[in-house]
Amino acid sequence: MKPPADAPVPDWAALRADFPILDQTVHGRPLVYLDNAATTQKPRAVIEALVRYYEHDNANVHRGVHELSYRATTAYEAARARAAQFIHAAVPEEIIFTRGTTEGLNLIAYTFTSRIKPGDAILVTEMEHHSNLVPWQLLARRTGAKLLFVPVTGDDGLLDLSGLDALLARNVKIFAFPHISNSLGTINPALELCARARRHGVITVVDAAQSAGHLPIDVQALGCDFLAFSGHKMAGPTGIGVLYGRQALLEAMDPFQGGGEMIASVQFEQSTWNKVPHKFEAGTPDIAGAVGLHAAMDYLDAIGRPAIAAHDGQLARDAFARLARVPGIRLFGPAGERGGLVSFGLAGAHAHDVVTFADREGIALRGGHHCTQPLWRKLGITATTRASFYLYNTAAEVDRLAEVIDQAARFFGG
Ligand code: PLP
Asked: Residue 123 in 3-state DSSP?
């Protein structure tokens, strides 16, 4: 993904200074934070928005008529409108605030219980994060539907789309897939996948956890029915996320959780539901989280997501190329265009040992199955080490990563 030729080049070093947490040493070494696929760090603008909200505006939303309640409600609904703009949804009503991607995906899977019948199928890929697999397993178990899988080709981490139309024709009702794989770094062709599903009348669900803070997203251009992401993976706070749904679908769906705010009228025996999106937001929402997410979206768009994608994609490609020279390494995911992360195994070393080794050098990595156990089982391993990049990471940090992983390979490889 390239930014437009006339776009100003961001001053990445100045932007890094916006993230106070990065200015520290760990085990006596400068912190190199490369665990961004798990969660990103927060710029001062987001931290200050949270403090400002709690110091000046905090109240519960929607239910009050006093000034602070009015301000909190205005701020919460402004964040919804901003989220709609961020992904180019047609109207703010198509934005449901959730706790994060996981809750958004569970919301769809749960509310589709009444719409799925025995013999129907749900199509996912072999590279799903457990958050985009287990909710569909539960839906299949509740309804008697079956799960089908788009295969992954191998270590290069691409989807094998040769059989996609045949799969979609097998009574598939929902096709859920990740925009960017959190384990492989693969950027899936979301536009094509949505178009092919639409031709078969299949509802599409895009897991945008790893893409929303990195790439520009236009849900109308994509033509997806649902798209979910998490604030904390895009410079925003934890505990807040977004589920986009096409309005007509949201109107037709059952509620998710029952409670305050999601109702129109309640009697002892039964209730009627509030309008979309409130129908899906039972109870007091994470108001401060929405305010912080608003600040994060403003922050990212002031830089430009094409520039961010170009920056962290380049760091990941450089890391891939540098790490390829390390003895005994096995790299996963595509060698060319990729999202901002690199996953690898080192001969003779468990991923947790590699992560511990790197931690002693001040480098924060993640080791394990990265919530994609079936994928790794298919590829014949149990765990990898993952380095994931964001806008504040630098070429010098890639050099440091390559140096330390080379040392680890020699240490564990003997
Ligand atoms: N989907 C993908 C691809 C992810 O990488 C993650 C988190 O790592 C999730 C879903 C779940 O996100 P959250 O834990 O924020 O709900």
From this structure: strand
